[in-house]
Specification:
It is globular and about 85 Å long. It starts with a helix and ends with a helix. It is built from 22 helices and 17 strands. Helix 1 packs across helix 6 and helix 3 packs across helix 16. By secondary structure, it is α/β, with parallel strands linked by helices.
Length: 563
């Protein structure tokens, strides 16, 4: 038998453990050194293998699969810079607690540090962004080899279920291709599934529940703010009702009925924010996305944070107390210890302002025939059928969704908001669609172009995803930042590309539709969704006009609140 036979047998035992506990998807890029891993996955009937030319796109595709499915997903590379291309997705997975399993092939120890081709130092390549690392031994025969490799798979899956990426480095000696000879590794170890499941934070102890109930009651008027969470629920609305406090929920945490629809507009209005500064700001989940919400946190008299993923989530270092436990369990168990309150004028003033602001914003949006990013976000979120997923890009789209999406049931919103980068977005959205859920995506034109290779590679690969792209020929978000005053603004920040998205889609064999009137957007999206496959709905936006309309919305809210 050859080294390739032994390597395949050992890695197959490792993969058997992963699949026995729930892994069913793996993303693989072509490479020689990774041959044993690729074959072990491809020959396991429990695994769907998704092949990608680009390792960076492959990793973000796996990230999308893991986000959508809630179970660990593997991504496989050969050695060298191929492994380094996983880094951006590993960072995002770490900062948003996504269970990603990175399997990197490597040269054996005797070829490290001697100038061997395609060899870099892969030991702890991803640093602390990988929550767990293992440098496997070179595969070898032995009566306990089967058990050893199976248990490595068990450990890998268990560590990934703690919500974060893990990295296993797998060195192989040549020859890498198996001859087909049988290999004696002994028995694989049989183990039950108990105790292995994706975590959502530790279960709170009774004293923590009591302490939480104590610190959020008796302190005056408050505000419940739900930032990014991997899970959502009605408990946070129930908590607001029990306390008599308004609830603002970001879309990625589940903006369900009972939460404010125009909460971000209220926080952005200086007069209203000054008159309605809460005594206690209860932040559940990640730090807020919008600047007005971040400012509200900074100005809060008291700040309590429930942080199930231990993300710290306190950039201003103002929290008097953090509860790093399962948020839903903590809130649900604390409800009985809280005396119900009507909220009086405090809650009624927030709700009346929310109603007024929502009506004013809707009236302005519906009066415009030209496409506007705020209306695109509002209409798209409202149009997605129950059970669908909206994947939203960083930069302006996630902020527009936060400001304009109305509360609703039946929609799940996903975003790469751990590190808030735009890279890998198309791959992430297509990975979500590969999980078998109806997928719509909202991203800017630069975000689409940044990951255009994934569109080219995947558009004709039996995936269903509609990407809605407000196309302002550059980076719209910089028009809202101080850089807009610089003489180098267009060249260095706005970066107009002048590219024809329709031509790119034709080259990629993706569907394309151009929408120039606001009322035509949703019919175009529905046609694309009904046709199946990957489509881009291209919505031209004038950057300067977009800034004007955002200002008009803010003015309309201010006027109705003053009235």
């Amino acid at each position: 038998m050859s080294e390739g036979d032994v390597a395949l047998a050992c890695v197959s035992a490792f993969v058997n453990a992963l699949t026995s506990f729930g892994l069913h998807d793996a993303c693989v890029s072509p490479g020689s050194r990774s041959t044993p891993i690729a074959l072990a996955l491809a020959r396991n009937e429990s695994v769907r293998v998704h092949v990608h030319l680009d390792e960076r796109s492959s990793a973000f595709f796996a990230l999308g699969l893991a986000k959508a499915s809630g179970v660990p997903t593997a991504v496989v590379t050969t050695s060298g810079t191929a492994a380094a291309n996983l880094f951006p997705a590993i960072v995002e997975a770490s900062m948003s607690r996504v269970p990603l399993i990175a399997l990197t092939a490597d040269r054996p120890p005797e070829l490290r540090g001697v100038g061997a081709n395609q060899t870099i130092d892969q030991i702890r390549l991803f640093g602390d962004f990988a929550s767990w690392f293992w440098d496997a031994r070179v595969p070898a025969e032995g009566s306990d080899a089967g058990r050893s490799w199976f248990m490595l798979g068990v450990d890998t899956y268990r560590e990934a279920c703690r919500a974060g990426p893990v990295h296993v480095n797998l060195p192989f000696r040549e020859p890498l291709v198996p001859s087909g000879e049988s290999v004696a590794l002994g028995e694989e170890f049989a183990i039950g599934h108990a105790g292995i499941g994706l975590g959502e934070g530790e279960v709170p102890q009774d004293d923590q529940v009591s302490e939480f109930a104590d610190v959020i009651t008796g302190g005056g008027n408050g505000l419940v703010y739900v930032g990014g969470l991997r899970v959502s629920g009605h408990w946070f609305v129930d908590l607001g009702d029990r306390l008599g406090w308004p609830v603002i929920a970001e879309p990625v945490s589940g903006r369900i009925p009972g939460t404010l629809g125009a909460g971000q507009h209220l926080l952005a209005d200086a007069d209203f924010a000054d008159a309605h500064a809460p005594e206690l700001f209860l932040q559940i989940g990640a730090s807020p996305t919008s600047r007005p919400a971040l400012e509200a946190v900074r100005r809060a008299r008291r700040l309590i944070i429930v942080d199930p993923d231990e993300l710290v989530a306190d950039p201003n270092r103002r929290a008097e107390k953090r509860f790093t436990v399962h948020a839903g369990n903590l809130v649900y168990r604390a409800l009985d210890a809280i005396t119900p309150s009507s909220g009086g004028s405090w809650l009624s003033s927030w709700r009346e302002a929310d109603r007024r602001a929502t009506d004013a914003v809707d009236a302005l949006l519906d009066s415009q025939d030209e496409p506007f990013e705020g209306r695109i976000a509002r209409d798209l979120a409202a149009s997605i059928p129950d059970g669908g997923v909206l994947v939203v890009g960083s930069s302006m789209p996630v902020r527009d969704l936060d400001a304009y999406m109305r509360p609703r049931e039946g929609l799940r919103v996903l975003a790469n908001r751990g590190a808030s980068g735009i890279d890998g977005f198309v791959s992430t959205a297509l990975g979500v669609s590969a999980a078998g859920v109806p997928t719509t995506a909202l991203c800017g034109d630069l975000t689409l172009l940044h990951d255009i290779g994934s569109l080219v590679w995947n558009a004709s690969r039996d995936l269903d995803c509609v990407l809605v792209v407000p196309n302002n020929d550059g980076g719209a978000i910089f028009s809202f930042l101080p850089q807009r005053e610089l003489p180098e603004f267009e060249e260095l920040f706005a970066t107009p590309h002048g590219l024809d998205l329709g031509a790119i889609c034709r080259a990629a064999r993706a569907g394309h539709a151009r929408v120039e009137h606001a009322g035509d957007l949703i019919p175009a999206v529905e046609r694309a969704r009904g046709a199946g496959g990957v489509h881009v709905v291209d919505v031209p936006i004038d950057r300067a006009r977009n800034v004007e309309l955002h200002g008009a919305v803010q003015a309309a809210v201010a006027e109705t609140l003053r009235a």
